[in-house]
């Protein structure tokens, strides 16, 4: 890298070195030079991801008191608690980029920040918990396995840990779907109905088509995303469709077809009007989700104040 006359490196030279590191597959760490746009993209994505984990506790959390037996209740409690932990890892990863926890939290609570659209749909009965586990956690894992290879060290390492836990979430959901699909006709009907309601919102989780995805080109260039929205959605459809068919279940897509030449399943069109309505705050439960997060923040105020008071007291010099 050549120096300028004043001994400094030019931005072009720093950028070339940065991109060469990405090209070699090196991880970028918090103290390293990075372009401002790279830092901003990561803060945007990681904070949205953290918010999704916290809002994602709500649809299933509503069923903790109504789980059908103690084993299911224990599993669901552990799962919802894991999602809270994932939010914490992710907020920490965003903090390494200079984002403050308070600012990120406020952006969620006052409606400026995005979070995954799928969590704005209602959980109408217990089989929704099963289907969220298999489909929604399954989609999240597919996306996060890709992000575990991302170029930013703290995000990539958080993803490795999160994916390990999400693996259990997916399996507990899959186990329930298998059991209900082989249960009474009423159970099979309930689980099919839940799949019908969650299928499209799950496919929307992967984001707009690549041709409409404004962030993907820069994210792929800088190794933040290593696969595109459509590539991941395609992988998901091809994993889930045969698995559901094997259980005698179907997906609510009349245009779904098997492409013999490419040996893959091809989905029908997604309702992008619905997607953008939900993303912009007008989904079935957007208002309720934000109200629940605001209430949780308010109810936790005394804990935050107590922590600050404790830290201040501990910082006082000890009297001789
Ligand atoms: N919902 O240009 P792109 C989980 C926004 S964790 C809402 O394609 P990008 C665990 C996007 O932000 C699930 N907004 O964006 C769990 C952008 O707006 P902006 C969360 C969406 O970043 C399971 C605009 O549209 N996972 O589920 C959505 O390249 C079960 C244009 O889109 C992550 O956050 C959406 N679905 O790709 C918990 C993973 N899609 O910011 C409980 C990290 C797009 O420019 C129970 N994030 N938008 O104003 C990512 O991988 C990416 O950010 C994508 C979007 C793939 C979400």
Shape: globular
Strand content: under 5%
- Give the structural class: mainly alpha
Q: Give helix and strand order, one letter per element, not per position.
A: HHHHHHHHHHEEHHH
Given this structure, which CATH class is correct? Mainly Alpha
Question: Termini distance?
Answer: 57 Å
Q: Helices, strands, pairings?
A:
Layout lengths: L10 H13 L12 H20 L1 H5 L8 H26 L5 H9 L16 H22 L5 H29 L3 H21 L10 H6 L7 H18 L10 E3 L4 E3 L5 H8 L6 H14 L1 H15 L5
Antiparallel strand pairs: 1-2
Helix pairs in contact: 2-4, 4-7, 6-7, 6-8, 6-10
The structure holds Phenylacetyl coenzyme A.
Summarize this structure as a short list of keywords or feature phrases:
64% helix; 13 helices; Ferritin; 2 strands; binds Phenylacetyl coenzyme A; 320 residues; mainly alpha; globular; single chain
Give a brief description.
Helix content is 64%, strand content 2%. With 320 residues, the protein is an all-alpha fold. The protein has a two-stranded antiparallel ribbon.
Question: What does this molecule look like?
Answer:
- The chain has one domain (22-315): Ferritin, CATH 1.20.1260.
- Helix content is 64%, strand content 2%.
- It has helices spanning 11-23, 36-55, 57-61, 70-95, 101-109, 126-147, 153-181, 185-205, 216-221, 229-246, 272-279, 286-299, 301-315, and strands at residues 257-259, 264-266.
- It has a two-stranded antiparallel sheet with strand order 1-2.
- Strand 1 and strand 2 (264-266) form a beta hairpin.
- Helix 2 packs antiparallel against helix 4, helix 6 (126-147) packs parallel to helix 8 (185-205) and helix 6 (126-147) packs across helix 10 (229-246).
- Residues 44-45, 48-49, 52-53, 56, 83, 114, 116-117, 132, 136-137, 140, 143, 204-208, 213-216, 219, 229, 279 line the site of Phenylacetyl coenzyme A.
